[in-house]
C-alpha cells in the first residue's frame, strides 16, 4: 500500500466515524455506485452493531473499506482504488479522483 493510500484510508475512516458521507465508486462488475455510509454507532441499528467491540482489532486490509450503508441498512465495502469521489458535509473535505 502506498503512503498516499494509507492517508486516504485514514482520512475516509475519520470522516465515517464523524458523519454520513457519500461515496461514488466503481463496483467489481464495472457498475457505478453512489452510497451513503457511516461508521457512527447512532446510525447503525443494534441488530447490525459490530460484534467485536472491546476485542482487539484484527489486522485491517486497508485496500478496501467496510462501512454501514444507511440507505440499504446493511454492511457493505468498497475498494479504495475504485473511488471516484467522496462527499462530506464540508465542501473543503471533498476528494475527487
Describe the SSE topology.
Elements: H1 3-18, E1 21-26, E2 32-38, E3 64-69, E4 74-79, E5 83-87, E6 95-96
Antiparallel strand pairs: 1-2, 1-5, 2-3, 3-4, 5-6
Average pLDDT level: 82
Q: Give me the side-by-side strand order of the main sheet.
A: 4-3-2-1-5-6
Task: Output the radius of gyration.
Answer: 13 Å
Report the CATH topology name: SH3 type barrels
Number of alpha- plus pi-helical segments? 1
CATH class: Mainly Beta
SSE sequence, one letter per element:
HEEEEEE
Q: Describe the biggest sheet? A: 6 strands, antiparallel
Shape: globular
* Global structural class: alpha+beta
Helix content: 10-25%
Strand elements, count:
6
The domain tally reads: 1
What is the level-2 CATH architecture name? Roll
Cα(first) to Cα(last) distance is 17 Å
